[in-house]
Amino acid sequence: MTLFLTSSSERAVQKAATSLRDWQRDRQGLHVALIYGPVSAEDRLYHSKCPVDQRSVTALSEALDDIGTQWKVLNPCEPDFITELAAYDVALSNLHGPFGEDGRLQGLLDYLRVPYCGSGVQASAVAADKILCKRVMLTLGIPTPAWRVWSGGPANWNGRPVMVKPPSGGSSVGMSLVRDPLDLPRALADAVGTEGGEVLVEDYVTGTPLTVGLLELPGGPVVVFPPLTTEATEADFYDADTKLDVNSKGAVAVRAAELSPDVLDKITSDARVLWDGIGLRGSARIDFVLTEMGEPYVLEVNSTPGMSRDSNFAVGAAMVGLTHTDVVLAMLHEALARPPYDVPLPAPVFARSTSVREAAA
Prior knowledge:
Number of helices: 12
Order of helices and strands: EHEHHEHEHHHEEEHEEEEHEHEEHH
Shape: globular
Helix content: 25-40%
C-alpha cells in the first residue's frame, strides 16, 4: 500500500529532498532523452503559440543542466527518433495528448528497454481517455459530474449547460462550454475534429476549480501537494487561450485553496484513491471543481503534468519545500529505481553501428 505524505509531513519531505540531492552526486553525466515535439493538437498549439521561456521543455532543460546530466531534445516527428532514443539511459517526456501520454509512447519505451519517467502503459491510457477515466472513477467511488457519451446522430439537450470535451488531449483544446442548445451541434463537431469517434458531454458544474499534484519520492512515498485554486479571470472557463497566456495578461489566478478540514480531507482522499486505483507512478495532477455547497468533484487526471516554472505542479511542489530541480530529480530517480525488465523480448537493434543496451532479462 502506498504511503502518502502531505504538507504536514515537512520533515519527511525534506529528508527525501536531501536523499535526492545525495543521489544526484552519483548521476553526473546521466544521458537523458528529453522528448518534445509537435505531435498532438495540444503540443502543436504550445509549439506554435507559447513563448519559448514559458514552455515546460525550457524549464526541464534548465533543471537537467542543474542536475549535471547530458541531455538532448528528441523530436518524435523526426525519422531517426527511435534509433536515437534507444541509446539513452532514461527518457523524460514532455509530450501531451495522443502518442505522448496515452500509453503508446510508454509501450515503445518498454520495448526499447529505456527507463522513463511517469506512469506506465495502462495508467497512462486510462488517465488520457476522459471517457474511460470517468468509468474508472465510478468503479472507485469517486464523485465526478454526470456525463454521457455522444457518438453521432441527433444531439440531445437535457436543459442544462454542458462541457463538451474530446475524449483525449488536454489544455482544453477542442473543449466548449455550451449554454444554448443551438450551439451544441457545433461544439460536438469541434470536439470530434478530423479523427471522428466519441465525445464526452459533461454536466457543467459551477464552483471553484482546484488542482492537486502528486509526486513519488525515493523509497515509494507519494507527497500530495496542497490544493490550488485556478480561477480564470477573463474567460468563462479555464480554456486553452487562458492556459497559454501568450500575451502575459495573467488571466488566471493561482493561489493556495482555503478549504475546511473536512473538504481538504475529502480531496486528498480522492487523490490517493485515484493514484492507487489507476496505478499512477512518478507524478500526476488531478483537477477538481468545488461546488458552493462544499462538494468536490473530480474532472480529470493528468499523468504528465505541465512542468513550466510557473505551472500549477511546480507551484504546488514549492509549497511543500521542493524546487523545480528537486521535482525533476524525483522523476528521474523513480524511473531508474524501478525493477528491471523481466520479459523475454530481444533487445532491438536497428543497425550494426547503433549502440543499444542489452536486455536486462
